Amino acid sequence: VYGSDIAAPTLNEMPAITNVVELTLSGSKTVGTALFLTHDSVFVDKEIVAENSLSEWSHNVTLIEGTNSFEVYSKKTGVDTKSGSAKGSVVLDTIPPAKPVIDSPTSSTGDAVVEVKGTKSEDGNLCLRRDQEALCQAVVAIDAPSEFSYQLLLNDGENNVCFSSADLIGNLSEEVCFVIYKIAGPDVTIIK
Known about the structure:
Layout: E1 17-18, E2 22-28, E3 34-39, E4 43-49, E5 56-62, E6 66-75, E7 85-92, E8 101-102, E9 108-109, E10 113-119, E11 126-130, E12 137-140, E13 147-153, E14 157-164, E15 176-182
Parallel strand pairs: 1-7, 9-15
Antiparallel strand pairs: 2-5, 3-4, 3-6, 6-7, 8-10, 10-13, 11-12, 11-14, 14-15
C-alpha cells in the first residue's frame, strides 16, 4: 500500500463566513486510516482521528479572526506517504460595526414625530430598540448611505430609545441611547 493508493479524505462544506468561534469540521476517510489536519499557522499535520474502522469523521476547531484555511489528509501506519488532501476555508468575523453617531436629538417636544439624523457604519444597518424591547429593529438598511435621517414616532411621556448597528452576520455595535419626552398638552376645542 502506498499513500497514493489511499483515497483522499473529504471535507464537508462549511460556511463562507461566521461569527461563531467554534466550528465542527467533518467528512469521510478511508477505513483503517488516521486523519491529519493543518489549520493555517495554528497547527500543522496534527493527528485528529486515529486509525479506526470508521469512514466518517468530525473534529471541533477554534477559529481565529480572519480567514481560516484547513487541509486534511489520511495516512496508514507503516506507509511513509500520505493520501491526497481536501481543503476548505471559512472567515471568522466577530468585529461589530462602529456604533452610530446620532446628532443631538431634542430632549422634549410636543411633536408626535422627531427627525433623528446621524451617521451609521458603512458595513452595518441602523437598528432601533425602544424601552424594554429585547431586540432592535432595522430602520435603515446596510446598503443605505452612511448619513441617515429617520422619522421617529413618539409615544406620550418618556421615550427611551437606543440605536445600534448590525452587520450581515449579526455582529452588533454598542448602543447609543437617549430619552425624549413627548409633552402631551390639553385637548383644545375651538368654538366658533
